[in-house]
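ok here's 3-hydroxyisobutyryl-CoA hydrolase:
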Amino acid sequence: MSATLPALSGDGLVVAERRGSLGLITLNRPQALNALSLSMIRDLTTLLLAWRDDAAVQAVLVRGATQEGKGVAFCAGGDIRFFHQAALAGDPRLEDFFTEEYTLNHLIHGYPKPYIALMDGIVMGGGMGISQGAALRIVTERTKMAMPETNIGLFPDVGGGWFLSRCPGRVGEFLALTGQVIAAGDAVTWGLADGYLPSQALDSLVEALSVDADAVSLLALARSRLQGVPPPVLQEHKPFIDHCFAAADVAGIVAALEAAIGNTWAQETAATLRKRSPLMLAVTLEQVRRARRMTLAEDLRMERDLVRHCFHLRSGADSETVEGIRALAVDKDHAPRWKPARIDEVTAEMVQAFFVSPWPAHAHPLRNLR
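and the structure:
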């Protein structure tokens, strides 16, 4: 039996415990809604690699810490202020962040032991990346799930192309383009969660799993604790989602939504899309549709290409992503200056440039993912 925990970075943002056969991970950055830093990604990877090969650990559970006065979050995503600062400063850690994050996402999807994610509160972006690959994804009445990257001139990364494209119908395009927040019922209905448990029952679940037992027994015990899933909220719009978001391009999607005169939900959805970066909406639509035909490893390599281009096709403050983060999280004026400013000004050449890999295959930073 392993006697010690693996050495972590020491900043305390990831807390590891051994409870019986369970490896328990707590994301411990509640003041930032457990947003992932590079050190957190490295600590998570260190733990999962060590526990993968440790016979004394039969299952892993990951959860988010909470802080009085702050919102509840499993993980609100990556540290976008770091992205902004690093991009403007030319900090090479920005490259490391995405390479190591996507490698971690891949590790979780293929993890050989039960990996259980307690998706309580906000689960967005990078939080989806470290939960969608779980053997058991548990949501609560407080779950607020989204891939909101188009709101900052980015695209739904961390494997988002892969897992969103596998949602039913055109739900993947809808969630990817709009960044719509969904609750527990829609998350389960659309295949982005496996089961429901009230938030007040999470601690007792962890206690129940803190025993010496094998992997199969621990996973079965966790599943036995699940309760009835609340009804979905957005599922009633799915026929309309499937119709509108099947259009050939972003302009067609918006036109289909706006043509639904008298449909308030459709008009609000169209208005949301008109606030996003026209260029990154087109890139995102292409990403999701390509990813339907890809393996997870292929999708992550594509997304690594895309995120490199997000910061380097137009570098510094000219980047749509840097501008989007500035408007949302730095200056907070909520008035991004997108280039181009209109959906009909986006050309196929602009979009396709994002899908040309900046690396030859033998030198790709994610070339070893299988």
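+1. Residues 156 and 176 are 6 Å apart (CA to CA).
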